[in-house]
Amino acid sequence: MSVQEKGEQFSSKWGVILASLGMAIGAGNLWRFPRLAGQYGGTFIILWFLFLFIWSIPILLSEFSIGKKFKHGVISSFAQAAGEKYTWMGFFITLCTLGITFYYSVVTAWGLRYVGLSTSLLNDEEALEGLNQDFLEVYWQGISTGSYLTVGIHIGVVIFAVFMLYKGIQQGLEKVNKILIPSLLFLMLLVAAVALSTDNGPKGLEYMFHIDTSLFFNSKVWIEAVTQSAWSTGAGWGLMLTIASYSRDKEDVTFNILVSGIGNNLASLIAGVAILPSVFAIASSDAQAISYLQSGNTALTFTIIPLLFAKIPYGEVLGVVFFVAFTMAAFSSLISMVELCIRTFTDLKFNRTKASIITGGLCIVFGLPSAMSLNFFSNQDWVWGLGLLISGLFINFAVQRNGVGKFKEEYIDKDSSIIIPTVFYKIAMYLNIGIGVFLIWWWMSQGYSANPWFKDGVWNFFDVYSNATIVTQWGAVILIGILLNKWLYKKFVK
């Protein structure tokens, strides 16, 4: 029985829009984007915006319209759109997103740990004055590698997410996002305003938008731009497809996607404006600030923001505000990912309560390695972040199977108040095939691991950033999907 037949749907257009924004605006905006903008500046931002319109929005339009038409989760809807033989592709999209889900609750746990740290500084003037980068580096290492408290919070976050969702879309996802998204945007604007008001803060803004033309010839900048766009907007995740499966029959496809995609990028820019000026505000020199930003430090958000707020009046309060906003952003995206998993099990005819319990158990167990090891976390981010390119290509394939022009007319334009030119959509979808294949090949040919394929004659599966670990994990999921293809189609569609 479909979602529509059960009457499970969002109550209004804004319920869908807020859910889409909640899915898109997450830790990637406050944690991942500022790090990349700090490394590559305006060159990265130009490419990132380019891929929003060339890669992400066309794929999101395709995803949303597939979910809206078939009213089921990813595997079922994808199989109906692409054909029975290609059910395994929907399986890959689902597993790719789950690979991210399993470590995303850990990011949320990190946010809560820093809310705790910031709160502890509120009434401890001596600790606030003694706060320095060495302390924060040690604290970061402590919470991200083998901390049992982080593990406990990860478990609690998953349980809370499942609890918020098990009653259904209107009572869970829609109500949560009505509170989270407006509050989150307000808090981010507040922090950005504070950062720009500090000494040297405007220099960070100038640095953020500086364009280094030589970086246009660096493959890593291109791949980071397209994967960040896919990672942050949710293009290729199947999340937009899942949200759309709960949409009303006349839901406006194009309007929803444009608001979600552009809103996500604006939120990322606000986060960049908050964090990059902060680095210049606390650094002893411009050279030190630039050196730190270009290091690509994964912990940029966690080691800079507390120092910024330690240096300004009432900064300890704003520190709490920022990390509450970070945690809210991470959680708003996490619940959409958890919903994708729940929707997958309800497609298998599990009732929602049982599907929620199973989902919670999976997220807890498979998230534990990332909670215990930063290397494992980084590996999963590397493998499945890049895997979103594969997922995006699969969505593109489903569109091609229907005929690009015909798909747009029958799936996208039918209830859209804004009609994107068909020629643009066609060019983007055809171009994206080449973009996706080329960038995957280009990235893997660069050898960003010391031993990308073999180490001491052995397949280098355990290296955090090797090609071997990518191919092994992708290959395992694809092989399982192909072997189970008929079973998957029978269980999810027939």
TrEMBL record:
Pfam family, one: SNF
Record's keyword annotation contains Transmembrane helix: yes
UniProt-listed CDD domains: SLC6sbd_Tyt1-Like (cd10336)
Subcellular location: Membrane
Stretches that traverse the bilayer: 12-33, 45-66, 86-106, 148-167, 179-198, 266-284, 296-314, 320-342, 354-376, 382-399, 423-444, 464-484
Keyword Transmembrane helix: yes
Keywords from the UniProt entry: Membrane, Transmembrane, Transmembrane helix, Transport
Topological category with respect to the lipid bilayer: Multi-pass membrane protein
Domain of life where this protein originates: Bacteria
Protein name: Sodium-dependent transporter
